[in-house]
Amino acid sequence: MTFTVIVLVAFSIVLDVIGQLCFKLGLDRLPALEGGFRLNAFWGQVFNAPLLWCGIGAYVIEFFVWLEALSRAPLSLLFPAAALAYCGVVLAGKLILGETVSRRRWLGTLVITAGVMLVCVTHA
């Protein structure tokens, strides 16, 4: 992988993690709906939630970053590398959202990371 591709994939991963954090924080800050789930009221809340729009913006930017990365490297290399976003989300959930992460989940995260490293090293 060239340095440019590494930077593009890293930026894509960061944007993915930011998007997920914005979605989670934005939804958690929505007021509870009385009377159960009402789709129209929910969509009204969503359209007025700045953090959800930040998440959508992160995903839009990520889309174009991903296209640029795809134009420079094989999908069979990039897609496994993008799986590191799962690891980033687990870490961000722990550090930023204060979520409890079990040992089993940490182990799974390490297995994903090791798998990505194996794919990237053997693809060179």
TrEMBL record:
Gene Ontology molecular function: transmembrane transporter activity
Alphabetical keyword list: Cell membrane, Membrane, Transmembrane, Transmembrane helix
Chain segments annotated as transmembrane: 43-65, 77-97, 103-121
Compartments reported by the entry: Cell membrane
Gene Ontology annotations for the cellular component aspect, listed alphabetically: plasma membrane
Mode of membrane association: Multi-pass membrane protein
UniProt-recorded name of the protein: EamA family transporter
Protein's organism: Pseudomonas mandelii
